[in-house]
Amino acid sequence: MKVTLNGTCSECYQVTDLILTEKTKEIICPTCGHAVPTLDEGSMASLAKDQSKRAIMGIIAALAFVVAGFLFLGFVTNSGGGVPGNIPSLPGNAMGMLVGSIVMLLVSLGLGFVAASRNYVCEF
Ligand SMILES: [Zn+2]
Predict the structure, then answer these.
(1) Of 18, 36, 62, 92, which has the highest C-beta tally within 10 A?
(2) Beta carbons within 8 Å of 37's beta carbon, 6+ residues apart
(3) What is the DSSP string of the chain?
(4) What are the angstrom distances between the C-alpha of 47 and each of 23, 27, 42, 114?
(5) Residue 83: predicted pLDDT
(6) For 15-30, how does the pLDDT look when each residue is reduced to its tens digit (9 = 90+)?
């Protein structure tokens, strides 16, 4: 179980990346040595769960992006390399790949946004 937080020291206002595990007993400022007790087990568990969910979403977003890239390549190949000015006359599979590529790109953007949207801040 690991939790990453953006910590701000209440004594010297130094901002640090805090990586807390279940073995962490205290949050200590690397600059001035100010220390506070670490988070309780309940908060640690819910933060860890939330962060691992976001990490998985980030991986899925990256995969969706790769799939979108391959689908777009497939579209380019199947469309005969023509200029896409005449979309209705494209072969069906090229059309499907284009739509699939756009959908996967949107999925990737959406998930990537959700995965990156929350940053945990902790003042100690
Ligand atoms: Zn400090």
Answers:
(1) 18
(2) 25, 26, 27
(3) -EEEEEEE-TTT--EEEEEEETT--EEE-TTT--EEE---HHHHHHHHHHHHHHHHHHHHHHHHHHHHHHHHHHHHHHTTT--TT-GGGS-HHHHHHHHHHHHHHHHHHHHHHHHHH---EEE-
(4) 15, 16, 9, 16
(5) 59
(6) 999 999 989 999 999 9
Question: Would you give the distance in Å from CA 47 to the centre of its chain?
Answer: 15
Question: Ligand 1 center to residue 54 CA distance, Å?
Answer: 29
Give per-residue pLDDT as tens, 30-56: 999 999 999 999 999 999 999 999 999
Confidence (pTM)? 0.70
How is residue 70 written in tokens? 């391959």
CA of 32 to the centre of ligand 1 (A): 4
Contact assessment for residue 105 and residue 45, using Cβ atoms and an 8 Å cutoff = no
Give the dihedral sign, CA 43/47/120/6.
positive
List the domain boundaries for the chain.
2-123
